[in-house]
Amino acid sequence: MKIISYRPRDDQFWIGCTKEEAEQFFIPLLDNWRKERLSNYFREYEEQFSSPAYQKIVCETMEINEMSYIYFNVSRDLKICYYDVPHHPFHQLWNAYSPFRKCDIIEISHPSELKNIKPTYKGEKLTDV
């Protein structure tokens, strides 16, 4: 799984992962409301966000080679976890005030690694401003 963006003020990460990683690590962290709506999310995702043009825009904006199966916003302490559309962190959706900051992509193998991650962008420490 890959950390793609970071929310410094909230200490939360935007993480892309495979279906297996989602099932093993993140879906169990979801609240019941989101678990119940997960199948709807995938149906809508297939209908709205599976086009090559959309995927190209997401990849270029996030500076990644390919999209992940699903994306989660996860807090460092794992108490906050929710899935959302791949373009959720784009600043355009937040009137240019997105809480997310691009970060150097960080590969992790387990969510417990989040407690020690110090995100950077182009080698510089990320700040809240």
TL;DR?
This protein is α+β, with helices and mostly antiparallel strands and 129 residues long. Helix content is 28%, strand content 26%.
Topology:
Layout: E1 2-7, E2 12-17, H1 19-26, H2 32-48, H3 52-62, E3 70-75, E4 81-84, E5 101-107, E6 120-121, E7 124-125
Continuous helix count: 3
Low-pLDDT parts are none
Question: Kindly, what is the distance between the CA atoms of the first and last residues, rounded to a whole number of angstroms?
Answer: 27 Å
Content-based structural category: alpha+beta
Please bin the fraction of helical residues: 25-40%
Total count of strands: 7
Q: Order of strands in the sheet with the most strands? A: 4-3-2-1-5
Mean pLDDT level: 88
Cα radius of gyration in angstroms: 14 Å
Tell me what you see in this structure:
This protein has 129 residues and is of the alpha+beta class. The chain has one domain. Helices cover 28% and strands 26% of the residues. The chain contains 3 helices and 7 strands; from the N terminus they run ββαααβββββ. The protein has a 5-stranded antiparallel beta sheet with strand order 4-3-2-1-5. The protein has a two-stranded antiparallel sheet with strand order 6-7. β3 and β4 form a beta hairpin. It is globular, with a radius of gyration of 14 Å. The two termini are 27 Å apart. The mean pLDDT is 88.
Which key terms come to mind for this protein?
129 residues, 3 helices, two-stranded antiparallel sheet
